[in-house]
Amino acid sequence: MVEHQPNNTILVTGGAGFIGSNFIPYFLHNHPGINVVNLDLLTYAGSLKNLEKVEKHPNYTFVRGDICDNVLVKYLFKEYNFNGVINFAAESHVDNSINSPRQFIKTNIEGTFNLLENARIFWKEKNYRFHHISTDEVYGSLGEDGFFTEESNYQPNSPYSASKASSDFLVRSYYHTYGMNVVTSNCSNNYGPKQHDEKLIPTIIRSAINGVKIPIYGNGKNIRDWLFVKDHCTGIDSIYHKGKAGETYLLGGNNEYDNLSIAKKICDILDNKMPNNNNSFSDQIQFVEDRLGHDFRYAIDASKVSKDLSWKANESFDSGLEKTVDWYLNKYQL
């Protein structure tokens, strides 16, 4: 294990996943005086390849393990004397939660509890920060207008979103019951480099370049607000360091698009980069049976974090989407 400075080391959980593996290099670069211990179980959705650029960084340590493992988590708190936690670790794919919900309950609820309880025990009267990363899906589904805000009612509609809502409430309870210095951030749909192939945008890219059907649920009219992952990283950084204890902050990109429009945008980018014998990649788009309980629309009002912490998303959707396509083309060496 690398040397670390007491009281200057944070625990990042799930750091080998999509958002975490974008966050850790960003955080190490921008906070050279802070050590990061990354605890990740390396399920199918996490990969150390995502962190190759920092694996030898003097302020970085990787530990393979489960946030539900109380013996391990207790050991890490004792060994490293953490003065902060940022909890990315979660099962996150909605379809998987519909087919196999048990692991979502275990990781997202029991795992979050295990982290909170160890933080409470080890930190005692210390005012160290616990930042819980969550999702806008806990708020349910919007109609054609309106936005989620920090005051929106929780109305989760899938086992995934219900498990995240439960973990959000656990974090809230540790503030109100024990006075812990917690913050929660709920983000809109992320996109960008390193996202797992099962998600919408990588699936569209992969299917298009492999010449197979591009599957779009239902009629393709379900709408999401899209946030470039590096903008999400800056938002997490701002909330972790400057957010008010006990508060929730919503992070969104103000980029509302339905799924069919996303597919067509990606196909247009690929048409320019990989001319397809005078055919368009959009010819491969096919509608498939809709997801059970598919929420119609998510959209976030991020005015609170903008006003209180001076954060905003900087990446335009078109430029972020092109960067994402380029990353996957490089991954597939095309």
Write a structural description.
- The chain has 334 residues and is of the alpha/beta class.
- The chain has one domain (9-193, 227-254, 295-315): NAD(P)-binding Rossmann-like Domain (Rossmann fold, 3-Layer(aba) Sandwich), CATH 3.40.50.720.
- The chain has ten helices and twelve strands.
- It has helices spanning 18-30, 70-80, 94-99, 102-123, 159-178, 200-209, 229-242, 259-273, 303-309, 317-331; strands at 9-13, 35-40, 60-64, 84-87, 129-135, 181-187, 189-191, 214-217, 223-228, 248-251, 256-258, 285-288.
- The strands form three sheets. The protein has a seven-stranded parallel sheet, sandwiched between helices. The protein has a three-stranded mixed sheet with strand order 7-9-11. Strands 8-12 form a two-stranded parallel ribbon.
- Helix 1 (18-30) crosses helix 7 (229-242), helix 4 packs parallel to helix 5 (159-178) and helix 6 (200-209) packs across helix 8.
- Mean pLDDT is 94; it is low at 1-6.
Structural class, from helix and strand content? Answer: alpha/beta
Radius of gyration over C-alpha positions, nearest whole angstrom: 20 Å
Q: Please report the total strand number as a whole number.
A: 12
Record the strand order, biggest sheet.
3-2-1-4-5-6-10
The best one-word shape is globular
What is the correct CATH architecture? 3-Layer(aba) Sandwich
Write a short abstract of this structure.
The protein is α/β, with parallel strands linked by helices and 334 residues long. Helices cover 40% and strands 17% of the residues. It starts with 8 loop residues before the first strand and ends with a helix.
